[in-house]
Amino acid sequence: MKVIVQKFGGTSTRSVETREHMYKNIIRELENGNKVVAVVSAMGRFDDPYATDTLLSIVNTDELTDEEIDRLTSIGETISTLVCKSELSEMGYSVETVTNAELGILTDSHHMNATITNVEGSHITDKLKRADIVICPGFQGYSQNGKVTTLGRGGSDLSAVAIGVAIDASEVEIYSDVNGIYTADPRIVPDAIQLEYISYAEMLELSKNGAKVLNHRCVQLAAKHNITIHARSSFDSRKGTYVLGDEKIMKDHLNQLIISGITGSQNEARVTLVGVDAKVNGAGQLFEKIAEANVNVNVFNQALVGGGKMDISLIINDKDVPGVVEVINDLKEILKPQKTIVRGNIGKVAVIGVGIKNNKGMFQKVYNTLMSNDINVEMTSCSEINISCYIDRDDVKKAQVLLHEAFLG
Ligand SMILES: Nc1ncnc2c1ncn2[C@@H]1O[C@H](COP(=O)(O)OP(=O)(O)O)[C@@H](O)[C@H]1O
Ligand SMILES: N[C@@H](CC(=O)OP(=O)(O)O)C(=O)O
Q1: To test ligand 1's pocket by mutation, which of 213, 230, 259, 408 has the most ligand atoms within 8 angstroms of CB?
Q2: Ligand 2 mean position, distance from CA 354 (Å)
Q3: What is the fold of 263-408?
Q4: Sign (positive/negative) of CA torsion 390, 391, 393, 399?
Q5: Strand-strand pairing, 148-150 and 171-176
Q6: Is the C-beta atom of 12 inside 6 A of ligand 1?
Q7: Is 176 in the pocket of ligand 1 (CB under 6 A)?
Q8: Is the pLDDT of residue 376 over 90?
Q9: Strands 299-306 and 309-317
Q10: What are the pLDDT digits (tens) for 253-279?
């Protein structure tokens, strides 16, 4: 007998009909002689009664502390846990549920985006002795101060892998409404191809750059513990996509694609300081203050423009613009910029693949595809497996379709 960890997201827990499909996946494993730990997300998306965004919409979040918001949003997963227990029990299955404290996911106190510090699976293992199905609320943990925390949006994927680590599972199944990982979001690029395998490194880049199908911290944790993730659909019994280590993919020649995926995001902003005094270490001081403000800089560019002046450009998340503008104002006397330009309507398109480093002309192909279709590339960043271009936000979907056609069409 094996214990299978299955995670069901909001697209699976959403309604009585979607949950019927979800239960078929659990029951299949019971019929195979296995036991199931089901990690569940809140039911559905905004406007569904108990979905995370619905819960957030019924309060004024400015009037609540982050700790209070965690107490509110974690309820969505608790409701989902109890609904699934009631329905599965009614169908005659032996089911136990796990409370927040019994989950054993210990975190720091960084509410709304907590980091897991330890995972302890003894309560789940005990319950597995008494029941065939153990249902766990995803997305949450508890801090050393005994408070409920949440793991960031999309965090139930991370819960599932963390529980997989705690109970020593060799594989974690993550169910959603798509049959695994595609070469692009199939809702944006209908011709996207389903991948059989993808490496942790490529999946991490896809997730970090906008592919919400898997949470990036879940991929990091799976890579650290060498746990295979099987991303698949609640509504389709075929195999989905296996996310696993590069070594196995290389050794068994599991993936021949140069490019594994195209992804995009639409929440960036560009801040440019024009004509900064080049004699002082302006960028260094700017970065120090930006880091103190807890802001992540996605891309940075500095160019000498003559006359003892330089231009500095930053790409940040648009939610961080007010904080960065405040930092720039505080440093005005030191940096002496002639002007500061904030452009909020920025997005990103990213081409991801292990083949990038070994194939010439990849950047040129990305750049030419965009520019020849009137999409202006404002800034770029490249690594061995990722070419990212920052473009007008309104062009992000079109850019994904064009790049998919150019590389994978
Ligand atoms: N490369 C990709 N492959 C598959 N799905 C993707 C990709 N990029 C984005 N998606 C989106 O991810 C969605 C599934 O993830 P998500 O909405 O988080 O489901 P759940 O709430 O069930 O966890 C799909 O409906 C799809 O639109
Ligand atoms: N309900 C949480 C956690 C989560 O992971 O949800 P889902 O599995 O539906 O993406 C959220 O919306 O962020």
Answers
A1: 213
A2: 29
A3: VC0802-like (3.30.2130)
A4: negative
A5: unpaired
A6: yes
A7: yes
A8: yes
A9: antiparallel
A10: 666 678 999 999 999 999 999 999 888
137 band by pLDDT with thresholds 50, 70 and 90: very high
Ligand 1 atom having least distance to the Cα of 231? 4
**Phi (first) and psi of residue 241, to 5 degrees:** -120, 135
Ligand nearest to the CA of 262: 1
- Nearest residue by C-alpha to atom 9 in ligand 2: 10
Check: complex ipTM more than 0.90: yes
Phi/psi region, residue 158 (left: phi>0; alpha: psi -120 to 50; beta: rest), is alpha
What are the structure tokens assigned to 369, written together? 């595809």
Among the bound ligands, the one closest to the CA of 234: 1
**Which sequence spans correspond to the domains of the chain?**
3-254, 263-408
Scan for tokens 């195209």, then name that residue.
262
> Which one, of 182, 180, 202, 192, lies nearest residue 408 by Cα?
192
CA of 76 to the centre of ligand 2 (A): 9
- Write the secondary structure of 364-392 as one string of H (helix), E (strand) and C (coil): HHHHHHHHCCCCCCCEEEECCCEEEEEEE
Among the bound ligands, the one closest to the CA of 188: 1
The CB of 212 under 6 Å from ligand 1? The reply is yes
CATH number, domain 3-254: 3.40.1160.10
Q: Is 177 in the pocket of ligand 1 (CB under 6 A)?
A: yes
* Ligand 1 in reach of 243 Cβ (< 6 A): no
CB burial readout 66-76, b (16+ within 10 A) else e: beebbbbbbbb
Q: Is the CB of 159 under 6 A from ligand 1?
A: no
Strands in 241-244's sheet, in edge-to-edge order, are: 95-97, 133-137, 35-40, 3-8, 171-176, 228-233, 241-244, 197-199
Q: Whose CA is nearest to atom 3 of ligand 2?
A: 154
> Is this model's pTM higher than 0.90 or not?
yes
Q: Whose CA is nearest to atom 5 of ligand 2?
A: 154
From the CA of 77, which ligand is nearest?
A: 2
